[in-house]
């Protein structure tokens, strides 16, 4: 048996249940959004739910993609910096890596509450700096979703650092030392040795961060504005409405989120293949 086939067989027990649950939920959402499994009335193929949600769907899509992109870029930069520091042979840097790893088990809901207490106009940071609430910028619930992006970047940077640091700890030092013996400077070693080694892991971790942020609900609901809403917040609000007639609209929003996430995964896989081939 080839190593590739053996690896596929080892992954199947975990992959099949996940694919079955996600696939069944996605098919159910598609049927509901098309009016084929309505909670009230007779089944009838219709795009009325999509047309009804179309007014806010474009804005919610752009907002969700913007939040996910900004959070992913910040998390990737911070995570790469932490991974580089944590893999350095300096005791203080290793302590930094350990402190960063402690954020991973913290739930996002707890992190959102902490970020709200820190960045609100009457929060801890404003009090420390001696700024009155009237003069403090709207970081929580403001137009730029600063607190939401900051919470995702903080939490997910630890995940990125863990993934990238694991790769660099096992492979980077020997290559870096060899390049140093050949006369490469610090910047050249980072550009031609460390960064190519970290790129596949950094790309994979960034893709996971983007997809997670795109579909995450609690942080945007707690720290964001009431309107416009990101896709997950809009879907949950419509799904929880007492008006059962809007449930197909919630399904349409959920299907849109799933399609965007699937597209992001496919693009990330294609980019990772190129990175692996180049590397």
Give structural notes.
The chain is mainly alpha-helical. 76% of the residues lie in helices and 0% in strands. The chain contains ten helices and no strands. The chain has helices at 3-33, 48-87, 91-101, 108-119, 124-129, 146-181, 186-215, 218-223, 231-239, 247-278. The protein is flat and about 75 Å long.
Question: What key phrases describe this protein's structure?
Answer:
mainly alpha; 279 residues
Blueprint (SSEs and pairs):
Elements: H1 3-33, H2 48-87, H3 91-101, H4 108-119, H5 124-129, H6 146-181, H7 186-215, H8 218-223, H9 231-239, H10 247-278
How would you briefly describe this protein structure?
The protein is an all-alpha fold and 279 residues long. It has ten helices and no strands.
- How many beta-strand runs? 0
Please state roughly what percent of the residues sit in beta strands, choosing from under 5%, 5-15%, 15-25%, 25-35%, 35-45% or over 45%.
under 5%
Instruction: Please give the share of residues in helix.
Output: over 70%
Largest sheet: none
Our Rg estimate from Cα atoms comes to: 22 Å
Secondary structural class: mainly alpha
Low-confidence stretches: none
Number of helices: 10
- Spatial shape: flat
Average residue-wise pLDDT: 88
Terminus-to-terminus distance: 27 Å
List the helices and strands in order: HHHHHHHHHH
């Amino acid at each position: 048996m080839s190593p590739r086939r053996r690896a596929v067989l080892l992954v199947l027990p975990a992959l099949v249940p996940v694919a079955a649950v996600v696939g069944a939920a996605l098919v159910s959402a598609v049927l509901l959004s098309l009016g084929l499994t309505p909670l009230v009335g007779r089944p009838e193929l219709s795009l009325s739910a999509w047309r009804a949600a179309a007014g806010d769907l474009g804005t919610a899509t752009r907002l969700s993609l913007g939040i996910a992109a900004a959070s992913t870029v910040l998390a990737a930069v911070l995570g790469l910096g932490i991974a580089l520091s944590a893999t350095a042979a300096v005791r203080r840097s290793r302590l930094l890596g350990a402190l960063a790893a402690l954020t991973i088990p913290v739930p996002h809901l707890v992190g959102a509450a902490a970020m709200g207490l820190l960045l609100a106009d009457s929060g801890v940071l404003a009090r420390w700096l001696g700024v009155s609430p009237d003069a403090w910028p709207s970081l929580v619930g403001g137009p730029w979703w600063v607190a939401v992006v900051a919470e995702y970047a903080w939490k997910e940077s630890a995940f990125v650092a863990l993934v990238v640091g694991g790769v660099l700890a096992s492979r980077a030092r020997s290559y870096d030392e060899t390049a140093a013996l050949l006369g490469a400077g610090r910047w050249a070693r980072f550009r031609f040795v460390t960064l190519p080694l970290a790129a596949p892991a950094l790309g994979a971790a960034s893709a996971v961060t983007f997809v997670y942020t795109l579909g995450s609900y609690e942080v945007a609901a707690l720290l964001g504005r009431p309107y416009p809403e990101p896709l997950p917040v809009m879907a949950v609000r419509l799904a929880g409405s007492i008006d059962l007639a809007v449930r197909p609209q919630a399904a349409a929003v959920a299907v849109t989120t799933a399609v965007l996430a699937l597209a992001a995964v496919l693009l990330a896989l294609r980019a990772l293949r190129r990175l692996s081939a180049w590397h």
